[in-house]
């Protein structure tokens, strides 16, 4: 995820930033409400972790200005204000969830994942990256309009990468989120399935031009390659069953 942490407590902000980076996220830390709105305008993060007591603009002002402007950004409010009325006010202003201080870091990351899962359920079922299209509702994948047959796990892996296109996904993140395995598991299953996807999604032109649909980021993991459109071939891909099979 692209995560924006808005926290003016230097120690807490640094702790959250380091912890979420270890979780595999791309994390930016800002310390006031004005900077939060500016970053959200320019970068459209997936998630904002927002403290309420901020300089320049407090958290409730940030929420009010975000309404109708950054609907794609989920917001988790952190607050030491224990009054129910304060949390209700934040939710009415558009926050997706509230977490009282002090809190467990594990609870915070679990809530973040839950927020993103809920948002993805109501997102556009069509994911597109260059020639590749993935229909999350019908579980169909095509390239250049021609269907590509994927297994359930191949489909899930491609869906995860396409939802996070534009950033690198580490092997440990893919193991945890796609295979539900420990990030420390000694297995090369991620690399094996990446190779399966590359073979199924590649065209002859890709091999000739050295292009890969899924790029390896050395020492980091994998990400979707630079989106591009190749000339449509007369024959296209061979026609195949398109539902993800077991």
| Count, helices | 9
Structural class: alpha/beta
Number of DSSP-assigned strands: 12
The figure for the number of domains is: 2
Give the CATH architecture of the largest domain.
3-Layer(aba) Sandwich
Q: Shape, please?
A: elongated
For the sheet with most strands, the description reads: 5 strands, parallel
Strand content: 15-25%
Description:
The chain is of the alpha/beta class and 246 residues long. It folds into 2 domains: 2-121, 3-Layer(aba) Sandwich (Rossmann fold); 126-224, Winged helix-like DNA-binding domain superfamily/Winged helix DNA-binding domain (Arc Repressor Mutant, subunit A). It is 39% helix and 20% strand. The protein has 9 helices and 12 strands. The strands form 3 sheets. The protein has a 5-stranded parallel β-sheet, sandwiched between helices. Helix 4 (84-92) links the parallel strand 4 and strand 5 (97-100). Helix 2 (33-43) runs parallel beside helix 3 and helix 6 crosses helix 8. The longest helix has 17 residues, at 105-121. It is elongated. The two termini are 28 Å apart. Residues 229-246 have low confidence and may be disordered.
What would you say about this model in short?
The chain has 246 residues and is of the alpha/beta class. The chain has helices spanning 10-22, 33-43, 59-66, 84-92, 105-121, 152-163, 171-177, 189-201, 204-209; strands spanning 2-6, 26-30, 47-51, 74-79, 97-100, 126-129, 132-135, 140-143, 146-147, 169-170, 214-217, 221-224.
């Amino acid at each position: 995820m692209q995560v924006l942490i808005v926290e003016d407590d230097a120690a807490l902000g640094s702790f959250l930033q380091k912890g979420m980076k270890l979780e595999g996220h791309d994390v930016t830390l800002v310390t006031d409400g004005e900077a939060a709105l500016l970053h959200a305008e320019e970068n459209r993060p997936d998630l904002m972790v927002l403290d309420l007591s901020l300089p320049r603009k407090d958290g409730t002002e940030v929420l009010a200005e975000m309404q109708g402007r950054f609907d794609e950004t989920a917001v988790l409010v952190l607050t030491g204000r224990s009054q129910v009325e304060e949390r209700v006010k934040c939710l009415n202003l558009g926050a997706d969830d509230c977490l009282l201080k002090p809190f467990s870091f594990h609870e915070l990351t679990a809530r973040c994942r839950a927020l993103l899962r809920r948002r993805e359920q109501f997102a556009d079922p069509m994911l597109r990256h260059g020639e590749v299209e993935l229909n999350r509702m019908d579980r169909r994948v095509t390239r250049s309009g021609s269907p590509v047959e994927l297994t359930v796990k191949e489909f899930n892996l491609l869906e995860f990468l396409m939802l996070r296109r534009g950033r690198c996904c580490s092997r440990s993140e893919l193991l945890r989120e796609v295979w539900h395995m420990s990030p420390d598991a000694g297995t090369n299953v991620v690399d094996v399935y990446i190779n399966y996807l590359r073979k199924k999604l590649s065209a002859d032109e890709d091999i000739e031009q050295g292009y890969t649909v899924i790029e390896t980021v050395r020492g980091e993991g994998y990400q979707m390659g630079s989106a591009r459109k190749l000339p449509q071939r007369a024959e296209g891909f061979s026609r195949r069953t398109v539902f993800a099979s077991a």
